Structure formats: structure tokens, C-alpha cells
Amino acid sequence: MSKRDFYDVLGVSRSASADEIKKAYRKKAKELHPDRNADNPEAESQFKEANEAYEVLKDADKKAAYDRFGHAAFDGGMGGGPRPGAGGGPGGADFQSAFSDVFDDLFGDFMGGQRGGGGRRAARGSDLRYNLRVTLEEAYNGLQKTINVPTAVACSTCSGTGAEGGAEPVSCPTCSGMGKVRAQQGFFTVERTCPTCSGLGQIIKNPCKSCGGSGRVEKDRALSVNIPAGVETGTRIRLAGEGEAGLRGGPPGDLYIFIDVARHELFDRDGTNLYCKVPVSMAKAALGGAIEVPTIDGGRGRVQIPAGSQSGRQMRLRSKGMPALRGGAPGDMFIELAVETPVNLTSRQKELLREFEDLSEDNNPAMSSFFSSVKSFWDSMKG
């Protein structure tokens, strides 16, 4: 049985362009795919026939040979053509190539991309990271801050196309816009990135002199960033579309700002709570009394110290901590006492302390308990 004319199989004229042939093939492949024609026993053979026709007509050299000699160009009758079954002819074992075409061309759109390098012609720009250090006060109040970000922006000379004068890129002649080329090695078809267009599927005949054909240039950008109140170290802020410009007019990436809150000389932070260690005199701790402490909002808080307070004792100022980043009640501020032993005593102070010590045998319960335990320990060791 004689083979049908390949142009008739795909339903195109002999003067059809490569894009028209590809479009016709994809339409036929979708119509005839066996998975969609379970009730049509002839669909599989027609599907293979369409693949066979496309394998020849998509290749410029094979198409030229077919236009001149017809099917005889691939039957061995014209001398130089590929042999059937050698992997290069339409009737041969080029199953890998046809199989790849089916999935790339038929299902590429359903998988969110295009065949070969076509989906990368206008590549999305890279996401950028910017580390921003703020003070604890800035984290408490929030702020509007201007930052300078070095990044790649769309070239204004070529409007991001990469071509001189803003001209559109043209289809790569090596891969016919696919972004990849195939080479037959025995029974296997090896596919690799097109060396001419680097997988983009397009080339620029006259590259823009300002950007060298990339469609983007390096430049520092000043951006205004809103830092919300309550941020802490590790908080990430995303600025959509403020990343690196896309290649040849592609969409830009995003900018991610990572917050680092600097340590404070007075306050330690744990979530929304703040901790402040306050030194107090031995006399104040013993007698008790009120002291003033700083708060993160720049104000003052008054704290009453109970008589007989020890180092490490904590007192709380409610709602004087950090604000919650995503709403909710603010944290608390905890005052931790650090009882300070006096230094550089005068003779009179030493005299008074010795007199005080002589009168304080019953005023140090922790010390009395400790040394009582020590005496019991020593006695047990002797026994």
C-alpha cells in the first residue's frame, strides 16, 4: 500500500512555513492521540502516520529531500538517504524522537510550559535577598526605610528586548526555535541544549550595544520599604516584582528582605517580652522602696521593690513589651533585680557594716540554712 503524501497527512500546502507545519501537526496529534480515541481502531495508525510526516517536514534537510524525491528519498532508492529502521528515516525506529514530540508538543501546554527552550525565551528574573539591620526601637515603632538594591533592570535602550532599536528576536535557525537539538547515536536519540541560542530558541541578529543583547543592565535601585512594628530577627518581607529583571523582557523576580534586629544595651528580647536587669543597692534591696526603670517607648516605669528582695527576683510591667507582629496583645516587660555589693568603702561605712553584721545573725535565713547543712555533711563524713 502506497504512503500518503506527507503534506496531505498534515493538511498543509507545500509552501507552508515551519511554524504552520508545527501548528498543523499539533492539531492532528491532539485529534488522533490513542488516549482520546479508544473507540477508533484506526486512530493509532493515523497518529503514527502524522508523527512520521512531521519527523520529515520539521527538518529542513529531510524536507528538501522529500520535496525533490518524495518517499523514495527515504527508501534507499536515491543513494544518500537514511535507511528504514536506522533511526533517521520516517519509517525507521526513531521512536524516541516521535515519543518526545508527542509529549513535548501535545502535552507541553497542559504541564505549564512550552516545548524545548520556547518556554524560556522570556525568562523570569531571579529573586533577590537583602539583609536589613534595624534597632530594637525601630522594631518597636515600625518605620519607612529607603534601601539601595544593586540589581539587573530592563535596558531602556532596547526596552528589554536585547535587540538594537527594540527589534524582536528571531527564531534560531539551528534548532528552529525549539531550544534543543537531537543527534542519533545507534538506537538512541540524544537531546541537548542548542549551542547557538543556549536553549532560548531565539537569537538576536543585532544585539543592543547598551546591554550586549541580554535585555538588562546592572543598576542600583532606591526602594522604599515599610517595616511593620513588631518585626524580629528572621522576619521576611516580600516585595513582589522588585527582584532582578527578566531576560529579554521576561517578568521580574521578587525581592525578599530579611530583618536582623540589633542587640540593645538595656533590653533583652524573647518574642514579644522584654527583660531588663536593674542593679539595686544592698540597702534598697533590704529595706525595699520604689525605683524608676526605662521602657522601650522612651518612657519611665515605676517599680516597687519588696523589702528583703534577692538578686534574680523578677517583677512585671504589663503591656510594656514589644507589639505583636500580626496583631494581638503586646508583650510584657520583666525587671530582674541584681543586688550590688558596695565597693570602695570608707572607714565609717566599714565600721557601720561590721556593727550591722554583728546584729544580723537572725536576718540571713538562707546563709544559716546553708551552713547548717554543711555542718551536718561534715559530721556525717566523720561518722
From TrEMBL:
InterPro entries: DnaJ, DnaJ_C, DnaJ_domain, DnaJ_domain_CS, HSP40/DnaJ_pept-bd, HSP_DnaJ_Cys-rich_dom, HSP_DnaJ_Cys-rich_dom_sf, J_dom_sf. GO terms for biological process: DNA replication; protein refolding; response to heat. Participates actively in the response to hyperosmotic and heat shock by preventing the aggregation of stress-denatured proteins and by disaggregating proteins, also in an autonomous, DnaK-independent fashion. Unfolded proteins bind initially to DnaJ; upon interaction with the DnaJ-bound protein, DnaK hydrolyzes its bound ATP, resulting in the formation of a stable complex. GrpE releases ADP from DnaK; ATP binding to DnaK triggers the release of the substrate protein, thus completing the reaction cycle. Zn(2+) 2 binds at C172, C175, C194, C197. Keywords: Chaperone, Cytoplasm, DNA replication, Metal-binding, Repeat, Stress response, Zinc, Zinc-finger. NCBIfam families: DnaJ_bact, PRK10767.1. Its main location: cytoplasm. A zinc finger (CR-type) spans 142-220. Pfam families: DnaJ (PF00226), DnaJ_C (PF01556), DnaJ_CXXCXGXG (PF00684). This is Chaperone protein DnaJ. Its cofactor is Zn(2+). The J domain is necessary and sufficient to stimulate DnaK ATPase activity. Zinc center 1 plays an important role in the autonomous, DnaK-independent chaperone activity of DnaJ. Zinc center 2 is essential for interaction with DnaK and for DnaJ activity. It is found in: Cytoplasm. Homodimer.
